[in-house]
Amino acid sequence: MGFITSEALAESGYVVLDDHPAEIDPAEWLDLEYVRWRSSGITRFAPLTSYAGDVDCNGFWNHTPPRTDKDGVWVSTQVATAPTLQQRALEPGAGIGRCRVIELQPNEYADAIYNLHQDDNNRLNDEGTGWVVRGFFNLTDDTESMLILRSDRFDPATEVRLPLRAGSRIIVDTQRFWHAVWHRGTAPRYALIASWTSGPELDAYIAAHHGDPRPTTVDLDAQFVDDAQVELHRRIEERRKAFEAQGIVMEPPTPLYS
Prior knowledge:
This protein has a seven-stranded antiparallel beta sheet, covered by helices on one side. It has a three-stranded antiparallel beta sheet with strand order 10-9-12. A two-stranded antiparallel sheet has the order 4-5. It has one domain: Jelly Rolls (Sandwich), CATH 2.60.120. β9 and β10 form a beta hairpin. The longest helix is centred in the C-terminal third of the chain and has 24 residues, at 222-245. It has 258 residues and is an alpha+beta fold. It has helices spanning 27-30, 76-81, 83-90, 109-114, 200-208, 222-245; strands at 14-17, 35-36, 43-47, 49-50, 73-74, 96-104, 118-119, 132-138, 142-150, 159-164, 169-172, 178-182, 189-197, 256-257.
């Protein structure tokens, strides 16, 4: 039967929309309640939705009864602080699962590609229903930073690098891509991340904001990329040896984060 997917994402698996023209008071993200949660680097998250409306980042499938990344419950204390962020998440009119603000500390390119990960948005998702994808709204003006996407974790030839200006909007099938952010700033980066259910509403939103499936990607020096690849494999081998010393045999590195 398959899933209901977005035609706009069929070509490349991601789109870049027009930048959002409206500014947001930084207090809407700075004054939220954050919790530590693993992602691509040193991160904290401020959930705007969760399984039951608590300040909780856990996957919905880790609760009772388990469910897929849909039907998120708004966290009343958080949306009271961030009503504009809530409105941003609601703009597409698509179903919302997890929705949260990420705080990412500055990192290096080698850190980012080591932390490349795939999401697990569609665990327990029923065929015949909408495929869950992720929307990224950059809140801070991180013009030198970029979202990195790879269809093959270990092949830089598959890498796409998308700049992260304030107001930039990117929608990605993050279960299809390995992804992480290289944050080149000196202060934390903040972005709103929403799990949206594919369907006609999301397609209409993408079309209305001129979703581009082949935007310009940021160029990097080839030797710089090659050096980072060497560092990636060095870190993986170092990690393997550390686990081996504890009597743990590592499986091939294909982590799915949430």
